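Hi support team,

I submitted a single chain yesterday and got back a structure, but I'm not sure I'm reading the C-alpha cell output correctly. Could someone confirm the output below corresponds to the sequence I sent? I've pasted both exactly as they appear in my results page.

Thanks,
R.
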Amino acid sequence: MSTYDLVVIGTGPGGYVCAIRAAQLGLRTAVVEKRATHGGTCLNVGCIPSKALLHASEAFEEATKHFPDLGIDVGTVKLDLAKMQGFKAEGVAGNTKGVEFLLKKNKVETFHGTAKIAGAGRVEVTSDDGGNQMLETKNIVIATGSDVTRLPGVEIDETIVVSSTGALELAAVPKRLLVIGAGVIGLELGSVWRRLGAEVTVVEYLDRVLPGMDGEVGKQFQRIMAKQGIAFKLSTKVTGVAVADGAATVTVEPAAGGAAETIQADVVLVAIGRVPYTEGLGLDGVGVRLDNKGRIETDSHYATNVTGIYAIGDVIAGPMLAHKAEDEGVAVAEILAGQSGHVNYAVIPNVVYTYPEVASVGKTEEELKKDGIAYNSGKFPFTANGRAKANGTTEGFVKVLADAASDRVLGVHIVGADAGNLIAEVAVAMEFGASAEDIARTCHAHPTLTEAVKEAALAVGKRAIHV
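Hi R., thanks for writing in. Yes, this is the structure output for that exact sequence:
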C-alpha cells in the first residue's frame, strides 16, 4: 500500500491547484475524483460552459442587432443551437483535458471514484464498478465543492425544472423561461437564453438583484437588464411549481404575504444558491465538525478539528468562487510544506459575466456605512470614456471607495464592458495598499476603458478631468 504526504479529495479549481502546488513543493500527492473528468463543477457544468454560452450568445446578438450599426451586413442570421452546444462542449473538453495533463506533468497520482475518509490518514476509494482501495496519507484536503440549493417542494427534473446544470444543456430555446433567483447564476444563464430568443422573467425573494453587491450597482444593473428585455418580480416568493403537458405553472406571491398569482413557463431555472457538498465523505464517523450552514469548520490554516484533515473552497466559509478556492489550495499546500501560505480575503474580486459585466472587489458602500468607516467616493461613467464612445459600449460606471483619512482604496465597483478584466488592476493596487491617488497618478493608455478607472480614482479627490 502506497503512503502519500497528501491526498486531495476533489479536483475542482481548489483541489487540482492544491495538488499541483503540493507536488511542486516535493510532497507525494494523490487526488480522488468522482467524475470521469477533472475540473469539478466549474470546468464541467459551471464556470467554463456558461462562459462559452455567454460568449456565443453575445456574438449571436451582435450579429443580429448591432452589426448593421457598424456597417456590416451579414444577411439573415440563423441560430444553430446544436452547433453552439458543440462549441461549449469543445471548450469544456479542452479545459478538463488540460487539468489531466497538468496533474500528470506534476506527477500527481489520480484515482477515480467516490472517496470516504475511513479514519486518520486513510481514504477509501470506491470505483464505479464497486472496487475498493485504501490510500494511506499523512494529510487529507477536502475540496469537494458545492451543490445546487433545492427549493423545498420543487422537484428538479433537469428537463422542465432545471438547475444550472440542466440550463446549460437545453436542446431548444424555451419560449418562456422563468428564473428563480436574481443572483449571479440566474442572471448569467437568464441572459444567455434571452439573447437566443426566450422571454425571461426573474423572480427574487429579496427587494433587489445581486444580493451582497453594492446597492447602486444592483439598481443600475437591473435597469440595464430590464432594458434588454428581462422582466423582474422582486420581493416575491415562489410557493409552488406544477409540471404538466411539457410546461410549468409557477405560483408566486409577495414575500411579505398577499394574493397569489400564477406564471406559465416552458422551463423553470432554480438558481437560489449553492450548498457545501460533503455527502458520503464520512465526516461524522471521524468527528469533523460542521457549522450551522453545513460548512466544514476550519482554523486560519484550513485545519479541521481532526488532526491531518483540512478543507478548502466551497465546503468552508467564504464566497463560493473558483479563484478563492484556488488561492486556498495554494495556501494549504504551502502550509503543509512548512511555508507561510495565506489568502487576503479583503481582496477577492467577484464578477458577473453578463453583458455588460459587473465586477467588484473590497467593501461596498453599505458595508462601510454599517462598519462606521468614513470614506470618499469617486464615480466615472463610461458615457464619458473615449474608447467606450467609439465602441458604442457606454453603459455603466466605475466607482472607487477610499478611506477618508488615509485615501487607501477600500472597494471598487464596476458595471460595464470588460469589467471582469478592469477589476484586476485595482485588485493588484489594493493588494499593495494603494491609495486612490496612486491609481489616479498612474499613467493609463489612451484610448482604453481602463481610463475610466483612473478617472474614478481622480473623482475621489473631486478632480476628474472628463466629466
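A quick pointer for reading it: The longest strand covers residues 132-142. Let us know if anything else looks off.

Best,
Support desk
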